[in-house]
Specification:
Blueprint lengths: L1 E4 L2 E4 L7 H9 L9 H9 L2 E7 L2 E10 L4 E9 L8 H10 L9 E4 L5 H6 L39
Parallel strand pairs: 5-6
Antiparallel strand pairs: 1-2, 2-3, 3-4, 4-5
Helix pairs in contact: 1-2
């Protein structure tokens, strides 16, 4: 699927994704600092991806981890610094929410420490029941010594 606005494009076409751009931005992010390229590539391969482009250059990215029927988790949303403040992040998320079928998903989730105001404008809210969601949280997992990269994990490419 493709959406256009002025000279910008949001697309779910995986052939357009520039994985080096995605990795470079995620490894410097607050939520995935230090993430290795193999982990990014595997996450991209197993997600519904939305690339944001100016001409042929990728300038943003986001993904859904989804069953394509009832649930999606929005992750890794970014717009590169030179393009921030133009409403492109909001437009990227709006495109994600217009993806066919998403309107009937029972639950959409995301986690953010930087843009709650944006997601609130788009219909997201904090959980009504704080006991509803539970987590194992490892915020600095990619920075820790001794944690093997995906390349070093046995069966890393297996979904078995």
């Amino acid at each position: 699927m493709d959406w256009t606005k002025e000279n910008y494009l949001v697309s779910t076409d995986g052939a357009l994704l520039q994985r080096d751009v995605i990795h470079a931005n995620l490894t410097c992010s607050t939520w995935a600092a230090g993430i290795d390229a193999a982990t990014v590539h595997q996450a991209v391969a197993n997600s519904l991806n939305f690339g944001l482009y100016d001409g042929g250059q990728q300038i943003g990215y986001a993904r859904f981890i989804t069953d394509y029927t009832t649930f999606a988790y929005m992750a890794d949303v970014f717009v590169i610094e030179a393009y921030r403040g133009k409403g492109l992040g909001r437009w990227l998320v709006e495109c994600m929410l217009r993806y066919p079928g998403v309107e009937r998903y029972r639950r959409l989730l995301l986690a953010t420490t930087t843009a709650a105001w944006l997601y609130e404008k788009l219909g997201f809210s904090t959980p009504d029941n704080p006991d509803l969601f539970w987590q194992v949280n490892r915020p600095d997992i990619y920075k820790k010594q001794g944690v093997p990269s995906l390349d070093a994990s046995p069966g890393a490419s297996s979904h078995g």
